[in-house]
TrEMBL record:
Oxidoreductase as UniProt keyword: yes
Identification of the protein by name: Dihydrolipoyl dehydrogenase
Keyword Oxidoreductase: yes
Residue positions of the active site: H456 (proton acceptor)
Domain Pyridine nucleotide-disulphide oxidoreductase dimerisation span(s) in chain numbering: 358-466
Lineage: Bacteria, Pseudomonadati, Pseudomonadota, Betaproteobacteria, Neisseriales
Residue ranges of every copy of the FAD/NAD(P)-binding domain listed in the record: 5-339
Keywords on record: Cytoplasm, Disulfide bond, FAD, Flavoprotein, NAD, Nucleotide-binding, Oxidoreductase, Redox-active center
Signal peptide extent: none
Enzyme class: oxidoreductase
Binding site for NAD(+): G192, S193, G194, V195, I196, G197, L198, E199, E215, G283
Residues holding FAD: K58, G122, T155, G156, S157, D324, M330, L331, A332, H333
Cofactor: FAD
Note: The active site is a redox-active disulfide bond.
């Protein structure tokens, strides 16, 4: 006999597990179906983000930054270190420990909130009366059948394949393979200069690899404000040492026994490069494989996304979808907030998500973060604006940290002074951007931040100074 629930969430990533917890908090009998398994073959909640994405990449970034600091930065503090070595195996063990702790934490939260944790691949099979039927399989065998009044689809995304190139996670790697390299390759190639490419390229460059990034777009970080993007390009190529080539047309990719050869063209010139490992990171696609969308008439658009309205409701009754599988930025925090919002809508509440105030972060060194409109977007939209910038070079806290590279840029409406966008490259930009998000959510002006007292010495003073500069009254610039 089928198990019956008020809400069944398909997918246990940042959108799904949060949606399940919130639904349970609101009094719904809730189950979450998730198929992810760790390298040991055991169920592991948290989806791509926790298992082979956001969390493990940050662990490796921190390890590589520590190793780099020992070699290059500690001497300035009077700390002498000789013979420093990197044990990649220990680094990976630490990473896996962090994943395990977080995945276990989600399982604990499920128990605490009485969410039924169902392992397997969930597929829509139709309706029986007012309930949806979900069949759960594991390794092809049916392990459970669930019925639900409401279904929340949170199936995430998968790496976009490069035509004609097979990912074996031995020589040719996707994000999972890039996070599991057991030794530092001498020559690492990366196709794509997005978040994954830049972060993984940075990790292995700091650990000794020669890293070449091949990007099809002629513009670096096209989604970011170009003043910040240009500074990032200069810093990542000059200081980090990444070889980033733009406007590349990828040709044939040949896999040998121990290396990968990539033929490509740039500015009309044909080139070829041989790598010990090649990471393919050219974006991600919504994951609807095996979901049973066609069988129940779930509408999927031409790009493969589940079609939803502004409330994340699909074309089917009591069926919702959130996160990477629907329109909007493929960001874990966006998925989580959509999951919360859907659970609350099922309960009759009226939550709101402002897509103009979702922060973006790239965890390179220095970090890159932004929220709101870029200067290019404002020009294209014909919006009159004013801007203020300030650098970390004269900031006492940044100098003390030895991280004084970078800039904060504030864009505000020329007439109302309302903040339209904030763009940062610098130390802990991922943390600093939060103040900008709060400011935009409360419709703050640049003067509001300029008149708020910021702790001294702190990195936040650079945002304060940029807002002063927007009004042409910078104190330290």
């Amino acid at each position: 006999m089928s198990q019956q629930f008020d809400v069944v969430v398909i997918g246990g990533g940042p959108g799904g597990y949060v949606a399940a917890i919130r639904a349970a908090q609101l009094g719904f009998n809730t189950a979450c179906v998730d198929a992810f398994k760790n390298p040991e073959g055991k169920p592991s909640l948290g989806g791509t983000c926790l298992n082979v994405g956001c969390i493990p990449s940050k662990a490796l970034l921190q390890s590589s930054e520590n190793y780099h600091a020992v070699q290059h930065d500690f001497a300035a503090h009077g700390i002498s270190v000789s013979g420093a070595k990197m044990d990649v195996g220990t680094m990976l063990k630490r990473k896996e420990g962090i994943i395990g702790k977080n995945a276990g934490g989600i399982a604990f939260l499920f128990k605490k909130n009485k969410v039924a944790n169902v392992h397997g691949l969930g597929a829509l099979k139709g309706r029986t009366g007012e309930r949806w039927v979900i069949e759960v399989t594991d390794n092809g065998a049916v392990v459970d059948t669930l019925e639900a009044t409401h279904v929340i689809l949170a199936t995430g995304s998968t790496p976009r394949p490069l035509p004609g190139v097979a990912i074996d996670n031995n020589l040719v790697l996707d994000n999972a393979g890039a996070l599991a390299l057991t030794a530092t390759p001498k020559r690492l190639g990366v196709i794509g200069s997005g978040v994954i490419g830049l972060e993984m390229g940075s990790v292995w460059k700091r650990l000794g690899a020669e890293v070449t990034i091949l990007e099809a777009m002629p513009t670096f970080l096209a989604a970011a404000d170009q003043q910040i993007a240009k500074e990032a390009f200069k810093t990542l190529t000059r200081d980090t040492g990444l070889d980033i080539q733009l406007g590349v047309k990828i040709g044939e990719i040949k896999t040998g026994k121990k290396s990968v050869t990539v033929a490509y063209e740039i500015n009309g010139e044909k080139k070829s490069a041989e790598f010990d490992k090649l990471i393919v990171s050219i974006g991600r696609l919504p994951n609807t494989a095996g979901l049973g969308a066609e069988a129940v008439g779930l509408q999927i658009d031409e790009r493969g996304f589940v079609v939803v309205d502004d409330n994340c409701h699909t074309n089917l009754p009591n069926m919702w979808a959130v996160g990477d599988v629907v329109r909007g930025p493929m960001l874990a925090h966006k998925a989580s907030e959509e999951g919360v919002a859907v659970a609350e809508r099922i309960a009759g509440q009226k939550p709101h998500i402002d897509f103009n105030a979702i922060p973006w972060v790239i965890y390179t060194s220095p970090e890159i973060a932004w929220v709101g409109k870029t200067e290019e977007q404002l020009k294209k939209d014909g919006i009159e604006y004013k801007k203020g910038t300030s650098g970390f070079a004269a900031n006492g806290r940044a100098l003390g940290l030895g991280m004084a590279a970078g800039t904060v840029k504030v864009l505000a409406d020329a007439k109302t002074d309302r903040i339209l966008g904030v763009h940062i490259i610098g130390p802990f930009a991922s943390e600093l951007i939060a103040e900008a998000v709060v400011a935009m959510e409360f419709a703050a002006s640049s003067e509001d931040i300029a008149r708020i007292v910021h702790a001294h010495p702190s990195l936040s003073e650079v945002l304060h100074e940029a807002c002063l500069a927007a009004d042409k009254r910078a104190l330290h610039g």
